[in-house]
Amino acid sequence: MRLEANLGLCQGYGNCVALDPDHLDLDDDGIVVVTRDIVLDKELEAVQAGIRSCPVNALKLNDQDAQP
Ligand code: SF4
Fold this sequence. Notes:
Bound molecules: iron/sulfur cluster
Distance between the termini: 15 Å
Number of domains: 1
Helix content: 10-25%
Radius of gyration: 11 Å
Shape: globular
CATH topology: Alpha-Beta Plaits
Strand order of the largest sheet: 1-4
Largest sheet: 2 strands, antiparallel
Oligomer: single chain
Strand content: 15-25%
Number of helices: 2
Number of strands: 4
Low-confidence stretches: none
């Protein structure tokens, strides 16, 4: 699965980064950056906690492989 961020929605609260620092960070403007989009099964709980923490629902999991 892959983690995706809608940068247009992100308001830079940073909740998600605190809960899922292995995949997310904030850039210099305070907007979320997906630093690693691949989500391993063992990481799912932390990733979902980060997704749920976002007040504007800017994060989602895509269960389709993005490979061509
Ligand atoms: S919690 Fe949502 S709004 Fe806040 S930084 Fe993360 S993606 Fe952006």
